[in-house]
Specification:
This protein has about 425 residues and is α/β, with parallel strands linked by helices. It is built from 24 helices and 9 strands. Strand 8, helix 23 and strand 9 form a beta-alpha-beta unit. The longest helix has 17 residues.
Length: about 425
């Protein structure tokens, strides 16, 4: 890449991430292999809404040829699903460009008051389960007046569940059954604890069933992934820094059961690049494993189902594309007798959840959710499984809209049900 601004000057204005951003831009040869897998290009058909188009836009902004504001709509519409990374023949590390670029751009753009208010509300509520519960309760009371609110707030209210399930606090320690085979720490997550607390309990039970002792640090907080992917890097560093201090290092792994969280935690080295915490961030991120990968490597005790079940497996983008994890969940599910696992057509295309994307870009998110449900229904599956709470909410909502009462589960919940049957 020929710089109109020297790299040294880019480092001064962007930070240490400038080098990895430059590498990502230079690696792109504009071949177009990414276009068929890019959700926004599929929906909108606009070159600037494709990965190679966005790379050109970001390059032009960093070199001073375009302004942040005029390119913002195209960058904002990127889901960050990283399907482009999975198919790129040149090895472009798009995630090392889009995440720091959004942080760079956020400091240099202005947003309407309603948008700033909505983003602040999201930032203050989603990372905190108790605040989220309070906000959800308030949202139910405000639902009849939804039409009077700005569109951004209407989208938020539309996504609220009819009710939140009851939950009980997670213990500090959940012991293994029988001889201990491993010792891990678990990220409890934030929104997941309010929307579907049973996922964490299923995780603890399945780990215990396979001889794994689990520590749940009580002082942990949100992993910061939501903030990272919306350009709020200082807030992300504060959240990540706290977790790096309170999670133990003398464990076999730090487990996550949410694809978006796991992906974000593995990017801590990039988040803290060039800062005093960089070495700790890299050490921490190297311990992070998705629950499916950990169990697949450990080897599980075979569970069982009482009756045959046809199950569609949905690849969460931040599991399949960001972390390269596709086979481990399938191997776990295929180990269950009476369970038939089927793939979803166009499974590499995002469902439209993507963190807060269905709040930020509701029209595109809705189009992608509808497509995903049509493809799920084509499998004639009796249930759907996946490894990310955001996908579960998105797919579940669109199944309801389509009038299809197909249950949506986390992969670990399917294993938990099978073990309960065996017991």
């Amino acid at each position: 890449m020929q710089h109109t601004i020297p790299l040294e000057q880019l480092v001064e204005s962007i930070g240490p991430q400038a080098q990895s951003m430059t590498n990502a831009v230079e690696a792109c040869v504009h071949c177009g292999f990414c276009l068929p897998t890019c959700p926004t290009y599929q929906v909108l058909g606009e070159e600037m809404d494709s990965p190679r188009g966005r790379i050109l836009l970001m390059k032009s902004v960093l070199e001073g040829d375009l302004g942040v504001e005029e390119t913002a709509p195209y960058i904002d519409r990127c889901l960050g699903c990283l399907a482009c990374v999975s198919v790129c023949p040149s090895g472009v590390r798009y995630e090392e460009l889009i995440t720091p670029y959004r942080a760079y751009a956020e400091k240099r753009r202005s947003r309407p008051v309603s948008e700033r208010t909505r983003r602040r509300l999201v930032k203050e509520t989603l990372p905190n389960p108790e605040r989220f519960r309070t906000a959800a309760a308030a949202g139910k009371w405000g639902a009849p007046f939804k039409a009077l609110l700005p569109q951004a707030f209407q989208s938020m209210l539309a996504l609220l569940p009819e009710h939140l399930p009851n939950s009980k606090p997670l213990p500090e320690l959940y012991p293994a059954k029988g001889k201990r085979r491993a010792r891990v720490a678990l990220l409890a997550g934030c929104v997941q604890q309010a929307l579907d607390p049973e996922i964490n309990w299923a995780t603890l039970r399945v780990l215990a069933e396979n001889g794994v002792e689990t520590i749940i640090p009580q002082e942990q907080n949100c992993c910061g992934a939501l903030m990272m992917h919306t350009g709020q890097e200082e807030e992300a560093r504060q959240l990540a820094g706290r977790n790096m201090r309170v999670f133990p290092k003398d464990v076999d792994a730090i487990l996550t059961n949410a694809a978006g969280c796991g992906s974000g935690m593995k990017e801590y080295g990039l988040l803290f690049g060039g800062l005093p915490e960089e070495a700790l961030a890299i050490e921490y991120s190297q311990l992070v494993q998705d629950i499916a990968v950990f169990l697949d490597s450990l080897g599980i005790q075979p569970p069982a189902l009482p009756e045959p079940l046809r199950l569609a497996y949905h690849d969460a983008c931040h599991l399949a594309h960001a972390q390269g994890i596709t086979q481990a969940p399938r191997r776990l599910l295929n180990a269950i007798p009476n369970l038939t696992v089927v793939d979803i057509p166009d499974g590499e295309i995002c469902c439209g959840s993507a963190g807060t994307y269905n709040l930020d870009q509701p029209e595109i998110a809705s189009a992608l959710g509808q497509r995903k449900v049509e493809n799920i229904l084509a499998t004639q599956a009796q249930a759907v499984a996946m490894g990310n709470i955001g996908c579960m909410v998105q797919v579940g909502n669109h199944l309801k809209r389509a009038g299809q009462p197909i249950p949506v589960f986390h992969t670990i919940e399917i294993l938990d049900m099978a073990y309960k049957n065996g017991r």
